[in-house]
Amino acid sequence: MHDSRMNLNCLFTAAVDEYIPGMKGATLANYVELKSLIKDENGKIIGGMCIDKMDPEGKEFPVKAKVVVNCAGVHADEIRKMDKADVENRIVPSRGTHLIFKKGLGIKENTGIIIPMTGDGRLIFIINYFGHPMVGTTDVVTETTHYSEPS
Questions:
Q1: Is the dihedral of CA 119, 141, 7, 18 positive or negative?
Q2: Would you say 13 and 141 are in contact if contact means Cβ atoms under 8 Å apart?
Q3: Is 89 a domain residue?
C-alpha cells in the first residue's frame, strides 16, 4: 500500500467535474490553514475561514461547501473543538516502529498477518510493501505535532 499515492489519487479523482454525473469536482488547495468554521443560522457547518500560508500578509478568505468533512487525521480533535470547545478528545496520538526487510522473505503480495495483542498490549502487523516484508507496531503514546521526526 502506497499511502501517499492513494491520497493523491483520491484528491485528483474528487477534483474531476462530472466524475459522478451532475456533480462538480472539489477544489483543492495546499498551504492553507483552517482558522475557524463558518456556520449557518441553524448552527450547521457550511465552510471555514482559511489563511493562505503562502501569502506574506496571511490573507484570510472564506471557503463554503455543501459538505464539510473533518479528515485531519491525528489533528481531527482540533477541528472538532472549533465546533464545540468542550468536547472530549477522541484521538490518542502514537508513534510506531516499522522495519522493512529484503525481498523474498516469504510474504506474498496479497497477504498480511496481524497479531492483535502482544503480551505488552501492542498490535503487530506484517504486510507486503513493494515486495518487501514490513513489520510494524504502534507502541508509544506521544504528543500531537505537525511535524514528524525519526526517533
A1: positive
A2: no
A3: no
- Determine the structural domain holding residue 13 and report its residue range: 3-83
- Residue of 92, 137, 132, 88 lying closest to 109 (CA atoms): 132
> How many structural domains is the chain composed of?
2
Q: Are 30 and 48 in contact (CB under 8 A)?
A: no
pTM of this prediction? Answer: 0.69
Query: Pick from 83, 109, 127: which residue ends a domain?
Result: 83
- Does residue 78 sit in the same domain as residue 9? yes
Residue 126 CB neighbour total at 10 angstroms: 19
Q: Is residue 18 part of a domain?
A: yes
Q: Could you say which DSSP state residue 143 is in?
A: -
Give pLDDT tens digits for 63-92.
Answer: 998 888 898 888 999 999 999 999 999 988
